[in-house]
Amino acid sequence: MTIRHAARGLVAVPLLMAALTGCAVGDVLDGSDEPVAVTLEASDWNGWDEDHEPSVETVRVDTVEGDTATIDGLTVTFTSVAPDEVEVRTSQDMAPRTEEGGLSLLDLERDFTATTGAPALFSTASTDSGTHYTVTIDG
Fold first, then answer.
1. Beta-ladder partners of 130
2. 12-32 tens-digit pLDDT
3. Is 91:71 a contact under the CB 8 Å cutoff?
């Protein structure tokens, strides 16, 4: 057997394994099935009690695509997971939130993306009280 034939065999084995297990070729070659550490945070707020002390709930998960997590009654499904970007779908419509704290109550969404250094920010759609949610890639 020549070196060229041996090298072809080394490439063929992971491709065959991917085909037999139903994985995409990229999953075998780049390790994208590895869990990613993500932190979910829920913090309640209200607009009528200036002395309100928010209660904060934090859930840390090592997640892969298709996993779900629940925090403060909201279920989050991880629709795409990579080390530098995580996409989530929420179980109810949410108001996108800016880093400054503003809410977009006119364009409710269920799909949000967190990237390394830029968490996904969203809240319950309300003007008087609710919960802020943050999805952060740990790292």
1. 45
2. 555 445 554 555 544 444 445
3. no
Q: Are 22 and 15 in contact (CB under 8 A)?
A: no
CA distance 54 to 117: 24
The residue among 79, 51, 74, 50 whose CA lies nearest residue 64 is 79
Q: Nearest-5° angle of CA 119, CA 77, CA 89?
A: 65
Find, among 83, 79, 76, the residue nearest to 131 by Cα.
Answer: 76
From its phi and psi, is residue 15 left (phi > 0), alpha (psi between -120 and 50) or beta?
alpha
Would the pTM of this model clear 0.85, i.e. be above it? Answer: no
Among 122, 72, 67, CA closest to 95: 122
Task: State the number of CA atoms in the 13 A half-sphere of 66 facing the CB.
Answer: 2
pLDDT in tens, 72-85: 999 999 999 999 99
d(CA 124, CA 68): 19
Residue pair 19/28 in contact by the 8 Å Cβ criterion:
no
- Closest by CA position to 15, among listed 26, 31, 6: 26
